[in-house]
Design goal:
heterodimer, A: about 450 residues, alpha+beta, four-stranded antiparallel beta sheet, B: about 375 residues, mainly alpha, about 75% helix, flat
């Protein structure tokens, strides 16, 4: 116990180590929070969800903190739903026995400087046979009324206003989401620079239902330019989920791979050095064969041909790491330990061979392991990210590397979606630097020769 | 082997005083066994690659299905064969499948074929690629590898050679001025090398290509390719800046840090103190007492730098769309193009093992402490 306290006192003397420990502590806390707040199954369902989950989210929206860098206020997403909404009054007059009107307006405030990404109107109707009809109009704050079109509404209808061909033609090929929000005279053609008209907008729906119990409802979604703390990707998914879940995955992968490979390598080196003979020779030869096998190539082969499951890949990483060249340096240390008097004593009083290896020899050089082990963690974290960047990420789990891969595959750097690359990259970098700084400090503590220098 | 007689000759010349026949025989015997062991290592390593790359034979099943599908589609979509009766079409299909199987050698059992792969690979008879072809249109694996090699060598030689010499010289400088602010900056920056080069590459592309538009996103030269030589070289250099910078940022600080520590350890040896006490000049102490014994590790490190030059950086080349061996390997794996994968592996394995063998010889000659065959032999 006292040793542990002393050890931490030593470690705290290095400012860089304190910095690293704070970072790793924060990441670990984030990982624990993620696993509790957003359970595994939940996260996967969300991440693999489609339109039904992410339909109201903007596509490729930048995070809200980008407002700090922008001169203009970026548009948030606006959703107005008439269903179960007491503030929206429906005007339902009977025109004949079965025919009724269903007139209502969906009002919203728009005060941003930027134009929205997209506008969709989702219509929901209940009818047995005769489908309701709707005329959709757009009312601007300055009182203009623009007709958007007439529709027959099935049970579910999506009116994609921003890509509607009729509207596009009507507006001289200027995108509808721009014309509808622009000050008059600024968006008549592609030549002028449009400006947003701020104020209270309305989408007016004049409906007709043809059956006694028939209803008509609508949901307007004006997709903004920003969303949440992390923004969204090309499938409208909230990147926060992947950023959060990337944390426990990265930490677990890095930690397990480092622990697994170093500990097994260490034990094998000890066994080989103590027993010697054909066992030692065999281990040496295996190490040499493994050094001929290209590590990353083998891993990519396995990822491509067999499985991309991250935990199986982890197993392969450990397996390929076992007979790494570090066996040779451990072995030379163990060869020295083997000749020490206390081992000779243990041999004489009849301690079992395995006891000597595991309880006497290994603890003697175990301190050497600790810095190696910590400095190895980031390389495994980046290995996972690297495989994901090559498209070999786990098919199910959201990870930092997979965000990078998505961003790359969708040309984020060309299109200017920098947040998409920067967010996972910064997290990866912070995690890598955290472990590396601790590892360097540990190296100096456990190798006194370095400390003098 | 030519190298053995060469080393023997050098040995007899350099040490005329020692009992030559005895030492020579011992060295030759040691080198012989070392050579055999290394060769067996390559054989097993390459065979393992063959097995993994073929999924232990399972890849054949996948390929058979692919062939069947491709032949089927090509026959269905051929307008000339529209009117043929079904039985005739069936026969033609079977015929083409057999030809295609023959072309890919799939008519032999896998065990036999894997041994063939192995012997071909070991004799550097790399054969023909199954899907990938070189830019000049050749399917020969050798042609493909040779075509990609200059790109990888250009990138890695520029960065690694610069890195190697810059790191050693800066480290020497720092070991003289140890504790200076520059020294402390290098120590503080050393952990940044935990971040791989491809990762710095992404950031560099982001800043210099996406935001500033001053350097290209990737690739090796502009498209269309510049016609005059100076323009070509200028374009090549522009494309090299970012990947080389990524490699340098990744490894320069740790390299300086390691060499600096290394030099400092050697300059705190007792015999250096002794030399200083004798009153030798600082210059003599540095040259004769500090640098001289550090030579073998520097030579080793340089040799390994040279070997790894040949190995393309897979992820870095992919990130920068650099047409080198690393990216080729990645493409080959995605297309299940086994001959290219095995060809690449065997090339690196041979280079690695030959260099290790040469290093053994050089060590036996240079370092008096490596007493071959005497006492406990450390592998």
């Amino acid at each position: 116990m006292k040793n542990v306290v002393n050890f931490f006192r030593d470690l705290m003397q290095y400012r860089s180590a304190v910095f690293g420990m704070v970072i790793i502590g924060l990441l670990a806390a984030l990982a624990v929070y993620t696993v509790i707040a957003l359970p595994y199954d939940n996260a996967i369902n969300l991440w693999r969800g489609g339109e039904e989950i992410w339909g109201d989210y903007p596509r490729n929206a930048v995070p809200e903190w980008m407002n700090l860098f922008a001169n203009n206020r970026l548009a948030p997403t606006v959703v107005v739903n008439s269903q179960n909404n007491p503030q929206i009054k429906k005007d339902m007059q009977s025109l004949s026995t079965d025919m009724k009107t269903a007139d209502f307006a969906l009002p919203f405030e728009y005060n941003s400087d930027g134009f929205p990404n997209e506008i969709n109107l989702f219509l929901v109707a209940q009818a047995q046979q005769k489908k309701p009809q709707a005329t959709v109009k757009w009312k601007t704050p300055d009182g203009r009324e623009i007709s958007l079109g007439d529709l027959t509404v099935g049970t579910r209808e999506r009116f994609a206003i921003s890509i509607d061909q009729k509207l596009l033609r009507k507006f001289n090929d200027v995108n509808p989401e721009i014309v509808l929000f622009a000050k008059p005279g600024t968006a008549e053609s592609r030549a002028t620079k449009p400006e947003v008209l701020k104020g209270k907008y309305q989408v007016v729906i004049e409906g007709l239902t043809f059956e006694p119990n028939s209803t008509l409802d609508a949901k307007l979604v004006v997709y903004g330019q920003t969303y949440g703390m992390a923004g969204t990707d090309h499938k409208r998914r909230d990147l926060m989920i992947a950023l959060l879940w990337g944390t426990p995955v990265a930490l677990a992968f890095g930690f397990l791979a480092a622990v697994g490979s170093t500990l097994i390598t260490f034990s094998i080196a000890a066994i080989g050095a103590y027993f010697g003979g054909w066992l030692d020779a065999g281990i040496q030869r295996l190490t040499e064969i493994n050094s001929v096998l290209p590590f990353l190539t083998t891993l990519i082969l396995i990822g491509t041909l067999y499985t991309r499951n991250i935990w199986i890949i982890l197993g392969v990483v450990i397996l390929l790491g076992i007979f790494s060249l570090s066996i040779k340096s451990y072995r030379s240390m163990f060869l020295q330990v083997r000749e020490m008097p206390y081992i000779e004593a243990a041999n004489t009083y009849g301690a079992s061979k395995l006891r000597i290896v595991f309880q006497y020899m290994m603890p003697k050089i175990a301190p050497v392991l600790i810095p190696t082990f910590v400095t190895q963690i980031p390389s495994f974290v980046f290995l996972e990210a690297g495989l994901a960047v090559l498209g070999l990420g786990d098919p199910v789990l959201p990870t930092w590397g997979k965000i990078l891969n998505d961003a790359y595959a969708n040309g984020a750097l060309y299109k200017g979606y920098y947040y998409w690359v920067i967010e996972p990259a910064v997290l990866l970098m912070v995690a890598g630097l955290g472990f590396a700084t601790i590892g360097f400090a540990l190296d100096r503590i456990f190798n006194p020769r370095l400390r003098e220098i | 082997m030519a190298s053995e007689t060469l080393s023997g000759g050098a040995l007899t010349k350099s040490r005329p005083g020692i009992r030559v026949p005895d030492t020579l025989a011992r060295v030759l015997k040691y080198l012989f066994f070392r050579g055999v062991a290394l060769f067996v290592t390559v054989v097993i390593g390459v065979y393992l690659t063959v097995l993994i790359a073929n999924m232990g034979g399972y890849l054949d099943t996948i390929r058979m299905a692919q062939i069947q599908e491709e032949v089927g589609i090509s026959l269905m979509s051929d307008p000339a064969l529209k009117g043929l009766p079904a039985a005739e079409l069936r026969r033609m299909m079977d015929e083409r499948i057999i030809i295609e199987r023959k072309r890919l050698n799939l008519d032999q059992p896998f065990v036999l074929r894997s041994v063939n792969y192995l012997t071909d690979a070991l004799t550097l008879n790399l054969g023909r690629a199954e899907f990938i072809s070189s830019d000049s249109g050749s399917r020969r694996v050798q042609a493909i590898l040779v075509e990609r090699m200059p790109a990888t060598l250009l990138l890695s030689a520029t960065s690694n050679l610069f890195l190697f010499f810059a790191a050693i010289f800066i480290a020497l400088f720092l070991s003289r001025h140890y504790g200076s602010w520059l020294d402390r900056i290098v120590i503080a920056l050393a952990p940044t090398s935990a971040i791989p080069a491809w990762f710095y590459g992404i950031f560099l592309i982001l800043f210099f290509a996406s935001i500033l538009h001053v350097l290209p996103f990737g690739g090796m030269v502009d498209a269309p390719v510049p016609e005059t030589m100076p323009a070509y070289i200028a374009s090549l250099l522009m494309h090299m800046i970012l990947p080389v910078a990524a490699l340098l940022i990744h490894s320069i600080f740790i390299a300086i840090y390691n060499w600096r520590t290394f030099f400092l350890i050697y300059s705190s040896e007792d015999y250096v103190e002794m030399a200083k006490a004798k009153g030798l000049t600082a210059r003599t102490v540095e040259r004769q007492y500090i640098l001289r014994p550090t030579l073998p590790p520097i030579v080793t490190s340089f040799a390994f730098t040279l070997i790894y030059l040949w190995q393309g950086a897979i992820i870095l080349e992919t990130v920068f769309s650099w047409p080198g061996l690393g990216r080729l390997l990645y493409q080959a794996i995605n297309l299940f193009d086994v001959p290219v994968i095995v060809g690449n592996t065997v090339l690196i394995a041979y280079l690695l093992v030959t260099s290790v063998f040469l290093l053994d010889i050089i060590y036996a000659l240079l370092d008096p402490r490596v007493k071959v065959g005497g006492g406990e032999r450390r592998a």
